[in-house]
Amino acid sequence: MAGLPIVHLPEGAQPSPSPAARPDWLRVRAPGGGRVDELAALLAERRLHTVCSSAACPNRAECWSAGTATFLILGNRCTRACRFCDVQTSATPEAVDLDEPVRLAEAAALLALSHVVITGVTRDDLPDGGARQFARCLHAVRARLPHATLEVLVSDLGGDEQALQQVLDAAPDVFAHNLETCERLTPQIRSGAQYRRSLALLAAAKRRAPAVRTKTGLMLGLGEHDDEVLAALADARAAAVDVVTLGQYLRPSAWNAPVERYVTPARFDELGAAARALGFLHVESGPLVRSSYHAERALP
Q: What pTM value is reported for the model?
């Protein structure tokens, strides 16, 4: 995309030394009680996974208390071992559950969701990367909730545009795929992923379905420099991405990559403003922002 504006940030764009303690702005209450317990029971009854639990999302209490969740399909084991993620890894995950779309649609209807977000583990073991299951879920939810808007957050699908088309043919309102981090850190942080392949997938989604809003997300605190964040944002806009999220990386276990810096709320505001200056239609930027946080705001 030609003509992207040059955006500058104040001084101090380098990562700080590895922090010892989590700052106050990242402290959240543990989920439990009331609506949270009810939703947990519903998901257990329907044998459904959520990224909220599987990836240890810090916003689980807030979202579950509001009766919203991001469904995680294709099982609970991923064929990749990304250094930022808390989802279990397996070279031989479970078989695709053909009844899962029906149970997911039932749960979405019981929750009376107006915006449904569906993501999934990466399934490199499947020829289509799981695209057909995403399409099944989209069709099932639309049949039960015809007025809801639908969002999918997919893996890179191995860069397979035929698999991508299967998902787009099911007509999501928002198509998301996360860059996660800057180009330099991608090989060590995103198992099996390629930065340029991810950009190409996002660009292909917009080219093949211009009316669908495209979306990506970046985590900060993995060792990136702010100029690399700006470069990734510019790359995403050049791929015609409409929506971007920026949030703080939090280390889920000792195995995962360490936190290299805690980005202040003020710096998130500055980066969010920089993203808006690049022309994104919607930006969510803050320490606790995650890919699906307030996802309904991505639509007009």
A: 0.88
Question: For the purposes of burial, counting CB atoms within 10 Å of the CB of 94, is it exposed (0-12), middle (13-18) or buried (19 or more)?
Answer: exposed
On whether the 28-298 domain is CATH 3.20.20.70, my answer is yes
Task: Name the token pair of 231.
Answer: 């470069």
Instruction: List the beta bridge partners of residue 78.
Output: 89
Contact 240, 1 (CB under 8 A): yes
pLDDT tens, position by position, 89-118:
998 899 999 999 999 999 889 888 888 999
Where in the chain are the domains? 28-298
